[in-house]
Write a structure and sequence with these properties.
alpha/beta, Rossmann fold, 2 domains, ten-stranded mixed β-sheet, five-stranded parallel β-sheet, 8 helices, 26% strand, elongated
């Protein structure tokens, strides 16, 4: 039995969500005694595949001719490769790219698909349901199962030195007239939200630009990434690509600070994998306190200067 991981190249490297998906793929291979193949997709996939350090027993492929992710092109190019390869399971990270091309690929293959998988139980795939309040166990009864893995549910595997031999493939797909016009990357100078070990989350309770400045100072002292709730996006405190939650990013930091966030279920669905959650909110009945490990009932504008001074003293 063979399992295929479709890893995605960004800036000449395999991206972090793909490395987490690799960790999940290795777990599934160990459970099923399957052989792991890795196919790197992207404009510089050949370079990224060669830089990927050795993963024991994994066979490597790269398809640089497929270029940037266009769902129509990638799906039509991957279809014959996967069909002829006889793969039992095809895995991709649950990123914007994975969520784009994998459903189209599943439709072409007439295969079952499970998105945002957070674990495995026998031949069943586990995924959060009802905003993370339940876990669904999903069976796929088609010859090939297509799944996307939730980045925060799996750790990147231990990878040895040296790169494995890479076979470059020529995969031709039809873009159906779609093309990538431009890519714009939002750079903040802080750690990436999905990879940071410490995250400061902002809500409407920080109130204004003065509160935002205090929160940013605290984040910088802690070397933390900044994200926030939908309300923080609506208020203009953060850009929408930093939104955390059901319609934003899922994160799994060691420490999550929630500043002025009420804790609506749509937001807490994105922080379920955080190891420690600390919250400051003036409302003692705020739902965020039901998921927080530590909570302070206080107005952020009063608590933040004290916290900032304590951090400076440390």
């Amino acid at each position: 039995m063979k399992i295929l991981l479709i890893a995605i190249e960004k800036n000449g490297l395999v991206d972090h969500p793909s490395l987490c998906a690799l960790g999940g793929a290795k777990i599934l291979c160990q459970k099923t005694s399957a052989e792991l193949h890795i196919l790197v997709m992207g404009k510089n996939s050949g370079e990224a595949a060669k830089k990927l350090k050795t993963v024991s027993g994994a066979k490597r492929f790269a398809a640089p001719d497929c270029g940037d992710c266009v769902a129509e092109r990638w799906a039509s190019a991957l279809f014959p490769f996967i069909r002829d390869g006889g793969y039992k399971t095809v895995i991709a990270p649950a990123t914007s790219e994975g969520r784009d091309f994998m459903p189209r690929l599943a439709a072409l293959m007439d295969s079952g698909m499970v998105s945002d998988v957070c674990g495995f139980e026998g031949e069943l795939f586990l995924r959060y349901a009802h905003a993370g309040n339940a876990i669904a166990k999903v069976a796929v009864n088609t010859p090939t199962a297509l799944v996307t893995l939730r980045e925060t549910s799996f750790e990147p595997p231990e990878i040895g030195e040296g790169a494995a031999e890479v076979e470059e493939l020529t995969l031709k797909g039809d873009s159906l007239g779609s093309r990538v016009v431009e890519r714009r990357e939002h750079r903040t100078g802080r750690p990436p939200l999905g990879e940071s070990k410490c995250v400061v989350g902002l809500g409407r309770g920080i109130k204004n630009q003065e509160g935002l400045k205090l929160a940013e100072e605290i984040a910088d002292l802690m070397g933390a990434a900044i994200g926030g709730s939908r309300a923080a996006v609506d208020e203009g405190f953060i850009q929408n690509d930093l939104q955390i939650g059901q319609t934003g990013k899922n994160i799994a930091p060691k420490l999550y600070f929630a500043f002025g966030i009420s804790g609506a279920i749509q937001h807490t669905a994105g922080i379920k994998d955080a190891k420690v959650i600390a919250a400051i909110n003036k409302d003692p009945e705020a739902p965020i306190f039901s998921v927080a490990d530590y909570g302070l009932v206080a107005d952020f504008s009063a608590a933040a200067p004290v916290l900032l001074q304590k951090l400076k003293n440390l």
